[in-house]
Amino acid sequence: MKILANDGISEAGKIALENAGYQVITDKVEQQNLVRYINDENIEILLVRSATTARAELIDACPLLKLIGRGGVGMDNIDVAYARDKGLTVINTPASSSQSVAELVMGQLFSISRFLHDSYKNMGSGDFNTLKKAYGKGIELRGKTLGLIGYGNIGSQVSVLAEAIGMKVMFYDTETKLPLGNAVPAKNLKELLSVSDIVSLHVPETAQTKNLINKTNLKYCKKGALLLNYARGEVVDLKALAEAIKDGHIGGAGIDVFPVEPEKNGDAFTTPLQGLSNVILTPHIGGSTEEAQQNIGEDVSIKLFQYLERGITNGSHSVPSIALPPVEGAHRILHMHNNVPGVLSAINTHYLKTILILLVNI
Question: In CATH, which superfamily holds the domain spanning 2-96+290-357?
């Protein structure tokens, strides 16, 4: 079977799949050419990260596809519901890059709370003592309240790291989550924003989360609060955030994701936050560490192999999670179909007839 790892895969993951007998292609195919490439090269498995999308039109146009794997947490670049309806299996690796994102969040939090970015940027220009006076007004993080919007794989890991340096942690999630350490859940988003010294977002991109942090909700934030977004670009209204920073209501921001990100080298990038004081912008590098790449490659290769060879569906978003013991000399068959009365009976009847014919021939 041919696998297209369109956004790359670690060498370890590639070797593991090739050793299992799969052909792994790591060519980077532009989105507009993806359908033709998949069909021309008879690609049956598509592995992506965040740069490549797999929407309904691609799924319809690529009948050979059997599985789509997403390296990382977010699934908003894949139409999971449509893939499920079409009998496609979709898997991801939610825990593989969580630590990398969580560490970057903490690193940026240290930087913003002490004006390190602005200080470094301006060293060598202007008077040393003037800069010392301007940027020597940072805050300690110990004792401050960190408000986490979203308490999944990444949010909960940030919670652990924050408590380790003496921060108080409050979180808000639409689902009931068991708190780690001394973290406490907020009753609602307004409560979390009103008590947090720092707000960090860790939610997927959905209709409910689009512009979740907007002009109205920013008003609920404490004056001078810091805002971090290492989740998805659409969840923050950047124009409203820029105005809140200019007005002095928000004391600083760290942003790694944007509503519109360049697709290829040379594409222009603009945001209302460019040039603002105590704002750190990074080019969507939250999960981009050597360790994360290694973990993602190994995790996705293991899940892919287990599904195709053993019928194990751990990590699947379109098939119920099934963990089955290995059976020597056997191969599992997974038949996906719409929930139509009589289908299962027809399948069983077909297999029973096949078995009877084999027995008669013996």
Answer: NAD(P)-binding Rossmann-like Domain (3.40.50.720)
**Cα 105 from Cα 234, distance rounded (Å):** 18
Q: Are the beta carbons of 26 and 9 closer than 8 angstroms?
A: yes
Note whether 132 and 155 are within 8 A (CB).
no
What single string gives the DSSP state of each residue in 293-337? HHHHHHHHHHHHHHHHHH---TTBSSS--------TT--------
The verdict on pTM exceeding 0.85 is no
**204: phi then psi, degrees, rounded to nearest 5:** -75, 170
Catalytic residues: 232, 261, 284
* Residue ranges of domains in the chain: 2-96+290-357, 98-281
CATH number of 98-281: 3.40.50.720
List pLDDT tens digits, range 61-117.
Answer: 999 998 999 988 778 889 998 998 888 889 988 878 899 999 999 999 999 999 999
